[in-house]
Amino acid sequence: MEVFAGWKNRDYSFFQHTDCEYFPCHSIAGAEESGFNCLFCYCPLYGREDCGGTFTRLECGRKDCSACVLPHKKENYGYITQLLHNTGASPVL
Questions:
Q1: 8 pLDDT exceeds 90?
Q2: Where are the beta strands (DSSP E) in the chain?
Q3: What is the pTM of this model?
């Protein structure tokens, strides 16, 4: 059972700041800018090894998430909140 499944379609699961100097900070292949979610501008899953996103490791060991758009898709709001609550979920990549 997905505890937060209903959250993905709520108004508070999407925010877009088109006036931001970095908007959009990532390119989403095949998606329009109108669907780019800025709610998780700084990904709350950065510190997790099992974040579900697309990342590489730099030589210094830090994550390079520049190719990841997981937190910028509205439909991943439920995934992120579930993972933060440790209930598990599957991202929409």
A1: no
A2: 56-57, 63-64
A3: 0.72
- What are the residue boundaries of the structural domains of the chain, listed by start? 5-84
Residue 46: closest CA among 17, 78, 70: 70
- Distance separating alpha carbons of residues 35 and 15, to the nearest angstrom: 10
End-to-end CA distance of the chain: 20
Q: What are phi and psi of 3, to 5 degrees?
A: -60, -40
Using the predicted structure, report yes or no on whether residue 80 has a pLDDT greater than 80. Answer: yes
**Predicted pLDDT at 44:** 92
Count of Cβ atoms closer than 10 Å to residue 16 Cβ: 17
| Host H or E run for residue 82 | helix 77-84
How do 63-64 and 56-57 pair as beta strands?
antiparallel
What token pair was written down for 82?
């579930």
